[in-house]
Design a protein that fits this description.
The complex is a heterodimer of chains A (135) and B (518).
Chain A: H1 3-13, H2 23-39, H3 43-59, H4 65-75, H5 81-91, H6 95-106, H7 112-126
Helix pairs in contact in A: 1-3, 2-3, 2-4, 2-5, 2-7, 3-4, 5-6, 6-7
Chain B: E1 2-8, H1 15-26, E2 31-38, H2 41-49, E3 64-70, H3 73-88, H4 91-94, H5 107-113, E4 119-122, H6 126-138, E5 142-145, H7 152-164, E6 169-170, E7 176-179, E8 182-185, E9 192-199, H8 202-214, E10 219-224, H9 237-247, E11 254-259, H10 264-276, E12 281-285, H11 290-293, E13 298-300, H12 304-315, H13 329-340, E14 348-353, H14 356-370, E15 395-398, H15 402-405, H16 416-427, E16 431-439, H17 448-465, E17 471-477, H18 486-495, E18 498-501, H19 504-516
Parallel strand pairs in B: 4-5, 5-6, 9-10, 9-11, 11-12, 12-13, 14-15, 14-16, 16-17, 17-18
Antiparallel strand pairs in B: 1-3, 2-3, 7-8
Helix pairs in contact in B: 6-7, 8-12, 9-10, 13-19, 14-19, 16-17, 17-18
The chains are: A mainly alpha (135), B alpha/beta (518).
Chain lengths: 135, 518
């Protein structure tokens, strides 16, 4: 992981935007959720998540206590029940329930849910669709 | 304009409440914008950049920061007080009962909740605008693209697709349109009538529609084509579609075309289409010789004002008299007394514009009378200002140019830059006349005269201290149905000593006459 790049990227987003959990924080949390969804048990991926998680913990001082708490949990792989349900549905390939669960997440807060999903999609894309089956 | 903020320590309110709170403050008297955000470093930086906070402030991310932007100190303070009260009240009182379904997040979702819509207005940063326009077109919607910085290849693709599907793309870089009586973007509230307008210039559209209204006529539709439509590569696709649409519209009896002169191949196509319409067409290609345009049912004119006069006459079935291209006597009479006020050193006109097309028309007309006029958008390279922040001899500047608007709202909304420049010109002993355009309508500042008058008075004081009189010439582009009160705006300006004309063309000629008559 490029420590410098990831720190400056996280710095730009932390605490940024509308909402009690500013949009930038929700995107970063969703991003972690996406990474966790794709990491499986691969050591390389988990190391990356660990390193990025540390960056986030440092940078999260710049946002409010509520976001900091969510971030602290997300770094450990613990997410809200609606996001956890979405991760599960993605991991199980459960296309039938994907739409319903996604709508649940979208409805959270004013934009929290949408922002989390945005981050999630980016996190899912990091290692690509195919990479889950390689290594 | 006034901005103010309040920091409420350690206050948490959920996001939905914060959104509703902003909406409630925005409808208060005199309030333009209101937001409540967590006082994180990034949010504070963003607000400073947006001009809603003057300085960064010590705050904890757990604090709530309210910023309000309104017409004066009194109304923003009232809003802040009410806002703080609202927030401190029990959060359940802020929630509205009923449907909490998510607001639409895409054009497709928007269409689902308003299936009868046939039009989408897109105003996103340029890099996303083409994709959004394509989505709208594929959903069968006509599109207006307020966004600029869309590359020409994308514009061409969008317009070809639209043409194949009988849809209109107004833009990119289309800031003004009036569709079925609804003003979009920077547009005025104009009487309905039987003149149809197609314009490649926003302020050009505003000037002709406002003058049509002033001269007793009205419009059916005012279509914008965007600033690049008439380039060779685009080929005038939207202008041609616009002319065709107005040709087949039974309510439009006269067609009025507004733009800078297109490239010859596009000009040919446009004139052919205009001829085929079978209706009287008035064409103002600003800078082109009207004689080269006039043919058959097409009348070429020299100024935006002449275009409006001609269109109204034709719309009433009257003949259009030859245009004199000189200053009307009522203004010529004002030129002499104003000229007498100027001292030996005060030789020059300093024209400060918020509308780019106004600046352009001014350059054409003033150059005819005065010789070279310097500008940031000069007619000839040798008259480009060495430093756009300093006037040279006769100068006319477009303050809406990117050079001036980086990180700031447009000068039709935010008068700070123009006011600073007015003072600078007043301090310059070679300034004789300061010329200003004042644009009303939706999208413009709520009280342009209120923004300008204190500065005009201050400028006159500064000049008076140095034993000079600076003459102010201006015009108001607006109608009496615009949200700002036209009569009051004109009165306020006159009372502060501004010599008002009805149009940009007359203001240009009057300013030139005054400095020439010294």
């Amino acid at each position: 992981m490029d420590a410098y790049a990831s720190t400056s990227a996280a710095n730009e987003m932390i605490g940024l935007g509308l909402g009690i959990t500013p949009s930038g924080d929700d995107i970063l949390i969703g991003f972690l959720a996406g990474l966790y969804s794709m990491a499986g048990h691969r050591k390389g991926a988990l190391d990356f998540i660990h390193a990025f998680g540390n960056t986030l913990l440092r940078v999260s001082k710049e946002t409010n206590d509520i976001s900091q708490t969510y971030i602290r949990h997300a770094v450990k792989g613990e997410f809200s029940s609606s996001i956890s349900a979405l991760i599960k549905v993605i991991n199980n390939g459960d296309e039938g329930r994907l739409i319903t669960i996604t709508k649940d997440v979208m409805g959270v807060g004013h934009s929290s849910g949408m922002d989390s999903i945005t981050g999630l999609l980016i996190g899912l894309a990091v290692w690509g669709v195919g990479s889950f089956y390689s290594n | 304009m006034a901005i103010a903020q309040r920091l409420i320590k350690n206050l948490y309110r959920d996001s939905v409440s914060l959104m509703q709170f902003s909406n409630k403050l925005r409808v208060l008297d005199g309030i333009r914008q209101a937001s409540a955000v967590m006082a994180t470093e990034n949010n504070i930086a963003l607000l400073v950049e947006a001009g809603l906070l003057l300085l960064t402030m010590p705050a904890s991310p757990n604090d709530l920061l309210i910023v309000v932007d309104g017409k004066d100190c009194a109304s923003v303070e009232v809003a802040l007080d009410q806002g703080e009260e609202m927030l401190r009240a029990r959060s359940t009182e802020l929630r509205e009962s009923g449907n909490q379904s998510s607001p639409p997040r895409s054009i497709e979702m928007g269409l689902a909740s308003m299936p009868s819509a046939n039009f989408a207005l897109i105003s996103t940063p340029g890099e996303y605008a083409a994709a959004e326009a394509r989505k709208a077109l594929q959903l069968g919607l006509h599109v207006m693209m307020f966004s600029d910085n869309v590359c020409i290849e994308e514009e061409i693709q969008l317009k070809r697709y639209a043409r194949e599907h009988n849809l209109l793309v107004m833009g990119p870089d289309c800031g003004t349109a009036i569709i079925n009586g609804v003003s979009l973007g920077f547009a005025n509230v104009v009487r309905r009538g039987n003149i149809g307008v197609v314009a490649a210039s926003g302020t050009g559209l505003q000037q002709v529609t406002c003058l049509i209204d002033r001269f007793g006529g009205g419009i059916t539709q005012a279509l914008g084509t965007g600033g690049h439509d008439l380039k060779s590569e685009v080929g005038g696709i939207t202008m041609l579609q616009g002319i065709e649409a107005l040709a087949t519209d039974s309510k439009s009896k006269v067609i009025l075309l507004v733009s800078k002169p297109p490239s010859p191949d596009v000009m040919k196509k446009v004139l052919e289409k205009a001829e085929q319409s079978g209706k009287p067409v008035v064409a103002i290609f600003i800078g082109a010789d009207p004689v080269s345009v006039t043919h058959g049912n097409i009348l070429g004119v020299k100024t935006l004002e002449d275009a409006a006069v001609a269109a109204v006459k034709l719309s009433k079935g009257q003949k259009v008299a030859k245009f004199s291209n000189t200053l009307p006597t009522k203004y010529a009479a004002l030129a002499k007394p104003s000229a007498k006020k100027l001292g030996k050193t005060q030789k020059y006109v300093r024209a400060l514009f918020s509308g780019g097309t106004f600046c352009y028309e001014n350059l054409l007309l003033m150059s005819e009378e005065l010789g070279g006029v310097y500008s940031n958008i000069p007619l000839k390279k040798e008259y480009k200002l060495k430093d756009v922040w300093r006037s040279q001899e006769h100068t006319a500047i477009d303050l809406g140019d990117d050079l001036f608007t980086q990180g700031r709202p447009h000068p039709m909304i935010d008068f700070r830059l123009r006011n600073e420049r007015i003072i600078q010109e007043a301090k310059d002993p070679s300034t004789g006349v300061i010329l200003l355009d004042v644009v009303l309508g939706h999208g413009s500042n709520m009280d342009p005269a209120g923004e300008l008058v204190p500065t005009i008075l201050q400028a006159q004081k500064i000049a008076a201290k140095a034993k000079r009189n600076v003459v102010f010439v201006g015009f108001v582009c607006g109608t009496d149905t615009d949200p700002q009160n036209l009569a009051r705006q004109e009165d306020m300006l006159r009372e502060s000593g501004v010599v008002l004309t009805e149009s940009n063309a007359q203001a240009a000629r009057l300013a030139a006459a005054i400095v020439s008559g010294r």
